[in-house]
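Hey Z.,

So I finally got round to the 2-(butylsulfanyl)adenosine thing we talked about over coffee. Here's the setup:
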Amino acid sequence: MSSEPIVLQMKNLIQSISKHNHAYYVMDDPLITDAEYDQIFFRLKQLEELHPEFAQKDSPTRKVGGEPLKKFQSIKHTVPMLSLGNVFHFDELKSFDQRITERLPNQKIQYDVELKLDGLAISLWYEHGVLVRGVTRGDGENGEDITQNVKTIRNLPIDLNIYADNVPDLLEVRGEVLMPKAGFEMINRRSIELGEKTFANPRNAAAGSLRQLDPKIASSRPLAFYAYGIAQCNPAHGLDSMSESLYWLRQFGFEIAERQWLVNSIQEVEECYQYIMSIRPDLLVEIDGMVIKVDSLEQQKTLGFLSREPRWATAYKFPAQAALTTVENIEWQVGRTGTITPVARLKPVSVGGVTVSNVTLHNIGEIHRLDVRIQDTVSVFRAGEVIPKIEKVWHEYRPEITQMVQLPTHCPECESPVVMPEGEALARCTGGLYCSAQRIEAIRHFVSRKAIDIDGLGDRWAESLLKLNLLDNVSDIYHLHEHQDKLLTIDKMGEKSVQNLLAAIEASKQTQLHRFIYALGIRGVGETTAKMLSNQFLSLEALMSANLEELKKTPDVGDITAEWIYDFFRASHNLEIIARLIASGIVWEAPQASSNLPLNGESWVVTGTLSTMSRDEATQQLQSLGARVSGSVSAKTKCVVAGEKAGSKLDKAQQLNIPVLNEDQFIQLMNSYRN
Ligand code: IVH
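And the result:
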């Protein structure tokens, strides 16, 4: 037992948890293992149980967010949240400096230079050190009460008394909420894996997260708060300068931006600007410029405000990462699953140092929304590392004769009819495996590890084989042995490679029904659904002849996927390819009827790193017992298997009170089914 007073032990543990939360959730860079973290957390919980009288109000053991709101309350700011003037060039900056020196003759002026954080301004209201309200900027006069959401921000202090003793009775802190780059990339990566929508940039991600009525959503997002000002403090803090006040805030647990500077002249401000531009890519957060503030609070008071902006501060923005150019053409591209996406071919233009000549228009709806036509002038912008986007179409510059872009009725690659099902944004080619654009991707998918698994074909040889016209569709794979002479003409393909490739192809004929179903690349049928279909129908014939109602009885298969599967097996070219594949000798053992499997119908999630097996292996074991293994935790999840460094999925499971097994417990359970 530590001899430190209990309260101090608790405060230390809370501080440590808050530091590790920040490293884990915000920076995506944990400093300790999950097990070590759990120990700290457990120790705090234990202390709180033993000494509830000392339990701290802002303990992370309570930090899960409340119930969803119906709507946000409007709150009037006691001190309005003003905006800043903007400058873009050194000349304008010099004028800003001149205006100041004229009003403060013969005074030494120092400037506090800060990063202009690209997020959302909020105000935090603390009474006796305890956070009582978090409010958005809104229109500057009235904002929205987002207290529940801000309380879930991991690096935001909820009780300042934990960090210092001299807490003011009233403190209103202003600052920016944003999603650091690492967290932004992490959640976008996750969304891509789950097939969900991604955020265009960190600012949108932060705004979208804070505007959620359900605080559990905000709590699952890696948001961070950086303080940059004090709106009110009672009793007065007695500080003299802006730069001091930032450091003063730190003692109460606030984080401030990673860099700031105190400089003596406007020339030095300009040097800072050039320097910040050069380090911008290395910063942890997205910025859109810098903010220059007269450092002395006394001088700030003398300068005062001009309408809605302070005279003592301005934003020095980076050149807009946007440029004007013209649309030379709009073409339609066909993806693996047949999606037809419009792409604008642009007159090449440099945007923030990168040449942009193509930009996706996403879908025909976006073309209508923008009303973009060939020969239009458009502004293209890039936010940070994010892909370029058409920001605006300058209709005023439109030439007299332009043509509206129409969705093609037939696929530009294979001439098959294009369909756009009702309620969907994307048009599709109905050509399936027959479409040449879909073919190479279809082949790569067919031979991939979790499908038919032909080592080397997808990444090494597919393109050359296609060029030699040896692979018109996937069924040709099993006829490659008839063309050994042609195979030998492929660059780097010697006798040995040919034999290896043909052997791998031969070996792949012995497969499993679910692999075969998955390999066909039916829209909406991933690995898990393929297994479900295999369990449900037990034979390819039964699956192929199933009607919609029968298909929908399969777990995981909803109305839409059922239609996709149904249509796939009604398209004659798909049937021909399947027949040819079977004729070439592909076989599988009939799957076992699974209705009596122990985990039948249960939804499981595997997360984190397991030490004795891969996540894939754990997934396979669960599936062999009839469980469905899903990528995300929801109320329907039966159980979560959590390895090392399990992250938000584990949190979510705990929030939803879903049972969690560690690796040992999981292995034990699996063994118990084997005996
Ligand atoms: S100070 C009186 N400092 O910029 C104005 N603002 O255009 C006080 N911002 O709404 C604002 N980083 O969201 C200040 N270091 C910083 C900032 C910053 C970003 C944003 C803030 C504000 C906007 C003003």
